[in-house]
Amino acid sequence: MGWNSWNKYADDFDEKIVRGMADAMVSSGMAKAGYTYIVIDEGWTSGRDANGKIIPNGKFPSGMKAIADYIHSKGLKAGIYSSPGPQSCWGKLGGGGYQGSWKHEEEDAQTFAGWGYDYLKYDQCTAGQVYDNTTQDAQAAYQKMGEALLMTGRAMVYSLCQYGAHDVWKWGAKAGGNLWRTTGDIGDRWESMERIGFAQIDISRYNKAGHWNDPDMLEVGNGGMTADEYRTHMSLWCMLGAPLMAGNDLRSMTEETKSILMNPEVIAIDQDRGEFHPVERLSGQGTFEVLARELSGNAYAVGLYNRGEQPAEISFRLDDLKFDTGLGSRRLVLTDLWKHAPVTATAKSSPPPYRSMASCC
Ligand code: GLA
User: Fold this and answer.
1) How much of the chain exceeds pLDDT 90, in percent?
2) What is the Cα–Cα distance from 156 to 78, expressed in whole angstroms?
3) Could you tell which of 120, 185, 219, 245 is best to mutate to test the pocket of ligand 1, judged by most ligand atoms within 8 Å of the CB?
4) Which residues, including other chains, have CB under 8 Å from residue 285's CB and lie 6 or more apart?
């Protein structure tokens, strides 16, 4: 869980914004809710110095170590960004304007560790210019940096970003990845979020503690969706057990945005500490989806999603949830985690036991 600069700012951000975001992470309550990493995405490099060391541009005048130190002083962790290609994706030269780590992998890993970074996002970008488009080459490019990070001896989260190519979920962990993007970039639009989110179910089984599918960062609070759509976004990402990287301006969040990003019970589903059980589709008829995921402590999370244009009534049968010990005479507690209110199931026979107007869990 954390924050990343890209969704809100692209490469148009600076050190002041990063420091402000670290301050706001704490003062807004986000840190307490579990958000920990402040990740500087593309846009911080200016090239290499005479010794080949990667260096920041004028938007980061105190240097990357001082910024990581500041983030740490807030009790948070710091993340940085590079690419297996010669340059990264975007920026001043019209695509590929910032520095990548190609042929400098070990050196850059040492530099990032030396500056005190705790997280590296490694973005494909121009890697296609220097690696073949095969699974073997894709894995080799990412594994090279994975091994270089390990060699630093510093514990760093390694975030692979190659948009889900070559079934990365099958080899991302082997390359050293803790999370790997499974799709192209999310946009701050319902169609984008919905298309990406519901395409993750079949690969849910590749999630394991410490190694996660990443359907991309959150857009909650960026203004392109309604509050209901953002609640669906958050609910869906949490049902998937996805990394939660906020991508909005934490310094000016509305109460509604806060209530979505910091819903403790929904976050608890995402962060459930037990063995990860893949999310299952209990039913998906037309525009409705009912997703379920077994949690630790003989509990289930159930997400009721309305993908249509109109309010709808969606139901599921408690019998479809496979509680270990069976329901028997045990007391069952049902809670609506957005309304923070108990829910009453109807009788066992038809109509189905639980009906809700909610469009999400
Ligand atoms: C790619 C990634 C994004 C972001 C940009 C930066 O598109 O998928 O998350 O890092 O590059 O250019």
Assistant:
1) 85
2) 10
3) 185
4) none
Atom of ligand 1 at shortest range from CA of 181? 8
What is the position in ligand 1's atom list of the atom closest to the CA of 6? 4
Q: Is 123 a catalytic residue?
A: yes
Q: Is the pTM of this model over 0.85?
A: yes
Catalytic position from the list 185, 228, 320, 336? 185
Helices (H) then strands (E): counts for the chain: 10, 17
Q: What is the pLDDT of residue 352?
A: 45
**185 is an active site residue:** yes
Q: Distances in Å between the alpha carbon of 182 and those of 129, 138, 211, 218, 230?
A: 21, 14, 12, 14, 20
Catalytic option among 123, 188, 216, 270: 123
Is the model more confident about 114 or about 348?
114
DSSP strands (E only) in the chain: 2-4, 37-39, 45-48, 54-56, 77-82, 119-123, 157-161, 179-181, 212-214, 245-246, 280-285, 288-295, 299-306, 314-316, 335-336, 341-342, 354-356
